[in-house]
Design goal:
Layout (H helix, E strand, L loop, with lengths): L8 E4 L5 H12 L3 E6 L10 E4 L7 H13 L4 E3 L17
Parallel strand pairs: 1-2, 1-4, 2-3
């Protein structure tokens, strides 16, 4: 398939395993310049840049984007794949 992403700079968060890794591989196959990120080391999918990060810490999402822009010259696509599930009432959820 051709998603029109050849040479586009794409950041995929949470891309060291599972859905994020599969997404990163698909984008690489499409010819995109992929920035991977996650708490563990680079997944080895042909990415141009891997940023080891923990998005539960303040400032980490910004750091990943800043590195992508600084090292690859911009950002065209962002795939937000990081998340966690916890059942609670909204007013009981704190920022930390």
């Amino acid at each position: 398939m051709d998603l029109g992403l050849r040479e586009r700079i794409c950041v995929v968060t949470g891309s060291t395993a599972g859905i994020g890794l599969a997404t990163a591989r698909l984008l690489v196959d499409e010819g995109a310049r992929v920035v991977t990120s996650g708490r563990s080391g680079a997944p080895g999918v042909g990415e141009k840049l891997h940023v080891e990060t923990d998005f539960s810490r303040p400032g980490e999402p910004e750091r990943v984007i800043e590195r992508a822009v600084a090292e690859l010259g911009g950002l065209d696509c962002l795939v937000n794949n990081v998340g966690a599930a916890r059942q609670a009432r909204f007013e009981d959820v704190l920022d930390d």
